């Protein structure tokens, strides 16, 4: 009987471990791994990127619109990569290498990604709030 309990306990532990891994990867949750990893409280890197964006943008309303987009797109993860499209970074540039126009450190520097994202939102939508309005209507920008 003890042998059967040990086998049952090991299988139960293996199933629980697999469920935990699937949940952490976003598979069972139906979200991307980048979003699954960032759905909890912001990490210090995300908080730092948010502080940087606040300083760079200045206007509270425009920052909030920018933040709404970045929260949805990457969860404030500067290395977030969309598995299907390859979009990259805080603002999910496609291709990510477009951000090189804002700096050669585009892959690792949130400030460079924020600068590029602001330039993109301002040139295409007039402002981050214009981009956010479009995002709300289409779920992309």
Describe this structure in words.
The protein has six helices and no strands. The chain has helices at residues 2-25, 33-38, 44-57, 60-73, 110-125, 128-138. It starts with a helix and ends with a helix.
What is the topology?
Blueprint: H1 2-25, H2 33-38, H3 44-57, H4 60-73, H5 110-125, H6 128-138
Helix pairs in contact: 3-4, 3-5, 4-6, 5-6
Question: Summarize this, please?
Answer:
With 141 residues, the protein is an all-alpha fold. The protein contains six helices and no strands.
Q: For the residues shown, what is the average pLDDT? A: 81
* Tally of helical runs: 6
Share of residues in strands? under 5%
* Helix residue percentage: 55-70%
Class inferred from helices and paired strands: mainly alpha
Oligomeric state: single chain
- Total beta strands: 0
| Radius of gyration based on Cα positions | 19 Å
Largest sheet: none
Helix and strand element order: HHHHHH
Shape: globular
Low-pLDDT regions: 3-40
Number of domains: 2
Our measurement of the CA-to-CA distance between the termini, rounded to an integer number of angstroms, reads 61 Å
Short key terms for the protein model shown above:
60% helix, mainly alpha, single chain, 141 residues
């Amino acid at each position: 009987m003890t042998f059967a309990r040990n086998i049952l306990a090991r299988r139960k532990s293996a199933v629980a471990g697999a469920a935990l891994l699937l949940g952490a990867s976003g598979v069972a949750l139906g979200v991307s791994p980048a979003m699954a990893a960032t759905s909890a409280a912001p990490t210090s890197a995300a908080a730092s990127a948010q502080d940087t964006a606040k300083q760079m943008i200045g206007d509270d309303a425009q920052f909030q619109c920018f933040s709404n987009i970045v929260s949805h797109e990457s969860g404030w993860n500067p290395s977030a990569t969309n598995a299907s499209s390859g979009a990259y970074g805080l603002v999910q540039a496609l291709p990510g290498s477009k951000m090189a126009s804002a700096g050669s450190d585009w892959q690792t520097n949130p400030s460079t990604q924020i600068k590029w994202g602001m330039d993109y939102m301002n040139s295409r939508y007039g402002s981050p709030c214009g981009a956010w309005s479009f995002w709300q209507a289409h779920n992309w920008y």
